[in-house]
């Protein structure tokens, strides 16, 4: 049985190691072996809109205006958020903003 993991993009098992990455022979997707090792250990890897890995305590900037659900306020583009926390669930970031305590998706922020 092969020790290389299935491709996270197309879920096929035709993958091989290439240096520090795994490569899928079917779709051509490449991903780091370190990410796979961290996922196997139970660590959650959260990436911002640019693909940078986020960790708890990082500072981020909002990349687009976000309407706050259940309120008439808006979290403006360029708002800096300090001291994020990585949590489980659909909204990966728990943070305090100018608008108040809220949870955000990592795809709407970039690391500072």
DSSP, total strands: 13
What top-tier CATH class of the largest domain fits best? Mainly Beta
Tell me the quaternary state. single chain
The main pleated sheet reads as: 3 strands, antiparallel
Count of helical stretches: 1
Instruction: Give the helix/strand class.
Output: mainly beta
Low-confidence blocks of residues = none
The share of residues in helices is under 10%
Shape: elongated
Question: For the terminal residues, how far apart are their CA atoms?
Answer: 42 Å
> Cα-atom Rg, whole angstroms?
17 Å
Count of individual domains: 2
Strand content: 25-35%
Q: Let me know the CATH homologous superfamily of the largest domain.
A: SH3 Domains
Mean pLDDT: 86
List keywords for this structure.
13 strands; 2 domains; mainly beta; 112 residues; N-terminal domain of TfIIb
Q: Please, could you describe this protein's structure?
A:
There is one protein chain. It contains one helix and 13 strands, in the order βββαββββββββββ. The protein has 112 residues and is mostly beta strands. The protein has a three-stranded antiparallel β-sheet with strand order 1-2-3. A three-stranded antiparallel β-sheet has the order 9-6-13, with no helix packed on it. Strands 10-11-12 form a three-stranded antiparallel β-sheet, with no helix packed on it. 7% of the residues lie in helices and 33% in strands. It folds into two domains: 1-43, N-terminal domain of TfIIb; 46-111, SH3 type barrels (Roll), CATH 2.30.30.40. The model has no long low-confidence stretch (mean pLDDT 86).
């Amino acid at each position: 049985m092969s020790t290389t993991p299935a491709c996270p993009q197309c879920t096929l098992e035709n993958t091989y190691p290439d240096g520090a990455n795994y490569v899928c022979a079917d779709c051509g997707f490449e991903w780091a072996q370190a990410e796979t090792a961290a996922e196997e250990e139970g660590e959650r890897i959260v990436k911002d809109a640019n693909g940078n890995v986020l960790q708890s305590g990082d500072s981020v900037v909002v990349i687009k205006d976000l309407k706050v659900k259940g309120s008439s306020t808006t979290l403006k583009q360029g708002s800096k958020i300090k001291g994020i926390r990585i949590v489980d669930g659909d909204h990966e970031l728990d943070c305090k903003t100018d608008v108040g305590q809220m949870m955000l998706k990592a795809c709407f922020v970039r690391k500072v």
